[in-house]
């Protein structure tokens, strides 16, 4: 990656010093421009994070008075099977969701050609990303549904009894991830398609003259040029995996018997659902989820910072 | 005659109109009656009350049914109405214990409600006081496909043993004896509640749901032993099925019986069943020595502690409790009145329900998720769902529930 010229050198200190007011303005102006953003960020991100952490030390049903219990919520988490189920599922989500990147790349390479009507094919492949997650969830839960689902009927034809993916605690998470991958692959594909537009044709030409082709061409010539696209694809996929809430909620409500819960859904269940109203406990789960996200986010920020400095 | 009546009425109205305008008092009612039928029922109720009390104006504020469950927690503490809808049993306990509802025992006493609303007295009482007035409920029981019964050549069972032996016949025909859809968890609780009410009785069930009996108790295990008998004849993969989808199993004759609440009748009929093909029976007897208890979730009206016009709110409660008012209201709702002097429409399912509920001498349970506190209910229903899929996990499930019990009721 090249360094953009935006990070220009400090202005050469020549000529007359600027009048005081202008200097003050120059110092103040960036802060003024930043102010709306900073304010929003404070109100809607930073303060709520702090508040969540604060609430996680209380026992509170949202109705009566808060009751300070220190780290008891966290101690309870350590002894909570449902929490470990959610944590495990979150890990499965993280790992399997990454499949969206190679699949997306593959489809992008496949579609990156000039054939008649290629735009139609591209938009067809992009289609699942455009529809809402709720619709994706519904489509897949009907697809899997015992009794009338296409997938169920297919497995019934094969093995006689049929496999109800969403009723089996061992398969349910994979079933939901498969539904999530569908739009996520489309997303990664579009990222790579735009990336492929930026691949320098002269380098391809040069590589071809040197006799590179197939996998080697892809690995040594194309992929390095796609690094920015890959980076973004990893970021959105990791975040998508960690906040996987809507599909779980639509397809299973965390079931059967809580085996498809993920942290974000468990947090919602404990704090906000009909059977919950344990604000403190929900907040404690949120804090754990935040800590996990922080690992990735700080990794990304560190990498971006390094790139910006051109290391 | 008619003319006379009208003139008399006009004259009467004229004479009271002026003082009424002078001091019209306001009564604020918050309700979750957002569906068409409940909405119409409440409009009619309010109109009737205003006609009887011209000096009171009732302002109704209707919330979305699901949103109401969250909203009530806010408005009770912040901006309290004079009247609010809620549910009986343990569902009202958090509000009663937090001092958010007004004690209305005097309304019960003065209007003889302990007699006329007797079937709901237990579920409206906490600490020996009454905290609201019930206006409607509906029965649970077993809905069955009469054609399937005819084809199998079996009788409608009276006892659980007969029920199970019928199941064997259904299985030979390739029909599921019992169907359900537990994706939303609660349908499984209906089965558990009835098995417990029939095996151990109302008092035990109430003690269990209020946390006085450990889940690892042998009597609880006995309930699951009864349940296990029917599991081989139950539809497979119910955890992934919505309750409405399970209805179609009955409609299409793929299954014979369904433990459900009366609200499901509309869904059965949408699927094409009629009074001739859809049957209703009381849940069969398991232990004949136990007084018969039933399950009937009850909807109620309460006076929040922060109400500004409690005097008129109490008048309103007394009005809601009247026999004729409940008759009319429940005609709109398509449900059952609680007042024993009310009458029920021609609907055969309501007739049957009214009969079994008004003669239930064991008591009336609200439903697992209303009798047990929220967290216990959630864990319990998940346990039932797991048990239906993996009956061998029973011991692990019960131990988990016991752990939850010890935490939930501690405070």
TrEMBL record, chain B:
<keyword id="KW-0813">Transport</keyword>
<dbReference type="InterPro" id="IPR050490">
    <property type="entry name" value="Bact_solute-bd_prot1"/>
</dbReference>
<dbReference type="InterPro" id="IPR006059">
    <property type="entry name" value="SBP"/>
</dbReference>
<comment type="similarity">
    <text>Belongs to the bacterial solute-binding protein 1 family.</text>
</comment>
<feature type="signal peptide">
    <location>
        <begin position="1"/>
        <end position="22"/>
    </location>
</feature>
<keyword id="KW-0732">Signal</keyword>
<dbReference type="Pfam" id="PF01547">
    <property type="entry name" value="SBP_bac_1"/>
</dbReference>
<protein>
    <submittedName>
        <fullName>Sugar ABC transporter substrate-binding protein</fullName>
    </submittedName>
</protein>
């Amino acid at each position: 990656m090249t360094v953009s010229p935006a990070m220009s050198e400090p202005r050469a200190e020549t000529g007359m010093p600027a009048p005081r007011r202008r200097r003050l303005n120059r110092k103040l102006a960036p802060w003024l421009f930043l102010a709306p953003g900073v304010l929003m960020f404070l109100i809607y991100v930073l303060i709520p994070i702090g508040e969540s952490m604060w609430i996680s030390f209380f026992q509170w049903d949202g109705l009566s008075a808060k009751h300070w219990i220190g780290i008891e919520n966290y101690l309870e988490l350590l002894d909570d099977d449902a929490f470990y189920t959610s944590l495990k599922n979150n890990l499965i989500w993280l790992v399997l969701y990454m499949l969206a990147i190679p699949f997306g790349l593959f489809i992008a390479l496949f579609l990156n050609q000039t054939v008649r009507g290629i735009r139609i094919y591209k938009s067809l492949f992009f289609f699942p990303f455009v529809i809402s997650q709720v619709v994706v969830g519904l489509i897949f839960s009907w697809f899997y549904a015992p009794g009338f689902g296409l997938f169920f009927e297919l497995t019934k034809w094969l093995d006689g009894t049929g496999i109800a993916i969403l009723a089996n605690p061992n398969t349910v998470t994979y079933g939901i991830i498969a539904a999530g991958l569908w739009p996520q692959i489309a997303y990664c594909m579009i990222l790579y398609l735009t990336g492929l537009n930026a691949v320098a044709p002269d380098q391809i030409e040069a590589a071809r003259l040197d006799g590179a082709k197939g996998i080697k061409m892809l690995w040594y010539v194309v992929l390095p040029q796609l690094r920015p696209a890959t980076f973004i694809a990893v970021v959105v996929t990791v975040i998508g995996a960690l906040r996987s809430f809507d599909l779980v909620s639509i397809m299973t409500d965390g079931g059967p018997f809580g085996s498809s819960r993920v942290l974000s859904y468990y947090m919602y269940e404990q704090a906000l659902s009909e059977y919950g109203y344990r604000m403190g406990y929900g907040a404690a789960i949120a804090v754990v989820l935040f800590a996990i996200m922080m690992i990735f986010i700080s990794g990304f920020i560190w990498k971006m910072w390094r790139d910006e400095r051109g290391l | 005659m008619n003319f006379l009546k009208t003139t008399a009425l006009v004259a009467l109205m004229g004479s009271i109109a002026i003082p009424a305008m002078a001091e019209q008092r306001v009564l604020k009612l918050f309700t979750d009656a957002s569906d068409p039928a409940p909405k119409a029922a409440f409009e009619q109720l309010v109109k009737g009350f205003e006609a009887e009390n011209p000096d009171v104006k009732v302002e109704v504020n209707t919330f979305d049914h699901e949103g109401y469950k969250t909203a009530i927690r806010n408005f009770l503490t912040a901006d309290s109405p004079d009247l609010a809808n809620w549910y009986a049993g343990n569902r009202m306990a958090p509000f009663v214990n937090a001092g958010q509802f007004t004690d209305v025992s005097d309304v019960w006493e003065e209007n003889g409600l302990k007699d006329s609303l007797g079937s709901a007295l237990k579920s409206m009482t906490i600490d020996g006081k009454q905290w609201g007035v019930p206006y409607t409920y509906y029965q649970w029981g077993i809905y069955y496909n009469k054609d399937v019964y005819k084809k199998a050549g079996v009788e409608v069972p009276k006892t659980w043993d007969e029920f199970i032996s019928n199941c064997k016949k259904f299985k030979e025909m390739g029909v599921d004896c019992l169907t359900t859809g537990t994706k939303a968890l609660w349908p499984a609780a209906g089965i558990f509640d009835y098995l417990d009410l029939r095996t151990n009785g109302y008092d035990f069930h109430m003690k269990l749901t209020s946390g006085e009996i450990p889940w690892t108790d042998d009597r609880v295990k006995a309930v699951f032993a009864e349940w296990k008998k029917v599991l081989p004849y139950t539809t497979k993969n119910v955890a992934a099925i919505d309750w409405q989808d399970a209805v179609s199993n009955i409609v299409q004759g793929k299954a014979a019986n369904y433990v459900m609440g009366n609200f499901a009748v509309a869904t059965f009929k949408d699927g094409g069943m009629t009074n001739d093909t859809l049957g209703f029976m009381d849940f069969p007897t398991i232990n004949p020595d136990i007084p018969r208890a039933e399950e009937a979730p009850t909807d109620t009206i309460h006076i929040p502690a922060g109400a500004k016009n409690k005097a008129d709110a109490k008048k309103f409660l007394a009005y809601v409790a009247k026999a004729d008012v409940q008759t009319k209201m429940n005609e709109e709702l398509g449900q059952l009145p609680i007042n024993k002097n009310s009458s029920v429409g021609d609907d055969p399912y309501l007739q049957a329900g009214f009969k079994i509920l008004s003669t239930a001498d064991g008591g009336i349970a609200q439903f697992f998720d209303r009798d047990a506190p929220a967290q216990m209910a959630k864990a319990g229903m998940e346990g039932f769902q797991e048990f239906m899929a993996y009956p061998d996990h029973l011991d692990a499930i019960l131990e988990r529930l016991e752990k939850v019990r010890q935490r939930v009721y501690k405070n």
